C-alpha cells in the first residue's frame, strides 16, 4: 500500500462533500507528473485530502483509492472545465481514479503548521515552487502528519 497527498479546491470537491457521497471520481489532473502519480495508485492506497486555493489551505482528512486509474472522461467533455481539445477516445492522455472518504480531521492541518515540521521538509507540498496537485507521501511523512492530526 502506498500513501499520497491530493489537492482539491473545496468548492470543487471538499472532504465534507466526499463524506456525504458513496464515492467520487478524482479527475481534472492536467499535469503530466501528477498524472503519472495518479496512474501509479492502486486500490486500497490512502491519501491525505488537501484543501487548496481557499482561505485555510491544509490537510482536511483522509480518503482511499477505490478504483485504479482509467481514462479521465472530463478530457473529452466540451462542457467540462478540464476539456482537452487534443484528447480523443482513442488517445486520452489524462487519468482519473475513484475515491472514498475515510476520515475528516477535527481541524484542518494548515500549510504553515506543516512547513514547521522537520519530518516533512522533503514533502513536495512544503518545498518552495512545488505546485503539484498529486504527490507521494513516505511512510515516515504519513506517520508525522497522523501524529499532528491526533
TrEMBL record:
Domain (EVE): residue spans on this chain: 2-147
PANTHER family cross-referenced by the UniProt entry: THYMOCYTE NUCLEAR PROTEIN 1
Name of protein: EVE domain-containing protein
